[in-house]
Design a protein that fits this description.
199 residues, alpha+beta, 2 helices, 29% helix, elongated
Length: 199
């Protein structure tokens, strides 16, 4: 221990932290830890919000891309309203590059005014008999493209006339975030040879 000379006397320096100093340091430490914790929690909330928005936007873009690509490569398409507010979009779509073949594609908008609406996709071969409107159990086996869909306006997402198709919908992002919105128009570009039937 250091020795201190004071007024001719030599004694030990036994000074240390008093209880008051210890309490002040403890309070300061708690304040710093609370501030760091708040920053950490805030960053976690922000990351979660950003992730939900990105997920919703990605899902919306993938769904829109599927429809746009199909319509651009189609020789014909038709929108059919389904009882209950649903819609089915059917198209005769060209596939392949070196050898052109045709398939029938269908996108089903499963509308639910109170629940979760979805867009589902299905491909089937051309036939001489038109495909009938699928049942709910059949649609449940189709590929799910987008979940949490709602029309941008009204109760439908597919529209347009002639060779054009309009597509307008939103996908819920959750956590009070604004929905991802899609509004686009696709035009048929493929020729229409052959006599196959898709609808």
């Amino acid at each position: 221990m250091p020795r201190i000379r004071e007024r001719g006397n030599i004694h030990s320096d036994e000074s240390g932290l008093t209880m008051v100093e210890l309490m002040v340091y403890s309070v300061l430490l708690v304040v710093v830890l609370v501030a760091v914790g708040q920053i950490f929690l805030s960053s976690l909330r922000t990351e979660s919000s950003v992730r939900t928005v990105v997920d919703a936007t990605t899902a919306a873009q993938l769904g829109a891309s599927s429809v746009e690509t199909g319509i651009r490569n189609s020789s014909a398409h038709r929108i059919t309203p389904v009882p209950g507010g649903d819609q089915i979009l059917q198209a005769r779509v060209a596939k392949g590059e070196a050898v052109l073949s045709w398939v029938c594609a269908a996108w089903y908008f499963d509308y639910s005014a109170t629940g979760v609406s979805q867009i589902r996709y299905h491909e089937y071969p051309e036939t001489t008999v038109a495909m009938t409107i699928p049942s709910a159990s059949q649609v449940a086996n189709w590929t799910l493209l987008v979940d949490g869909v709602s029309p941008s306006t009204g109760t439908t997402i597919f529209g347009g006339s002639g060779s054009s198709l309009t597509l307008a919908f939103e996908v819920a992002a959750g956590d009070g975030q604004p929905p991802a919105s899609i509004s686009t128009t696709a035009y048929r570009r493929a020729p229409s040879p052959g006599s196959g039937t898709c609808y």
